[in-house]
Amino acid sequence: MDLNTILRVLRVLNILMSILCGIAAVVCLMLLPGFTKAFMCVYCLLFSAVLLFFELRFMGAEKFIRDNFGFLFSYWGRCGYLTFLGTLCFSLDVGVAYVIGAVMILNAIFNAYLICLHPEFHHAGMSGHSDPTTGYTTAEQEAARYAASNPDLAARIAGSAVTAAANNPQMAAKVGQAAVRT
Fold this sequence. Notes:
With 182 residues, the chain is mostly helical. 80% of the residues lie in helices and 0% in strands.
């Protein structure tokens, strides 16, 4: 398997794991735990959201994440963060969270394997300190690419958006104002 495919699989795996971690936190929170466990659920939810936004590369969140979670922009930093998030899942003390935490740590071990031992990783001149986002596209770029390759679907979505805006003029005005601000 070539390096680009492996890195894409890791990115998708990180996205799925962040979603599962967030779901585990919500499930635990719905069980009405005590104050300490509720606090850990909120932590787990927030940190899994950081990983999700990092991997999806939302342009609005990019600067915030780079400024506050800069370690995610290296393979070793991301590997450590995955381990941290896995151990945070263990603190939720719910069966599904243990499984998600274990898979998250296995994901971190797989990341470490790639950094240390995979020949394609080193052949490409990459190291653990390389930026994993250099080959990424943003969520906006992926959406534009998908719309360009599926014009019929894009036209249907645009038509639905126009209909929704016509039926909800206040909402359309708020969306327009928000778009102008960004």
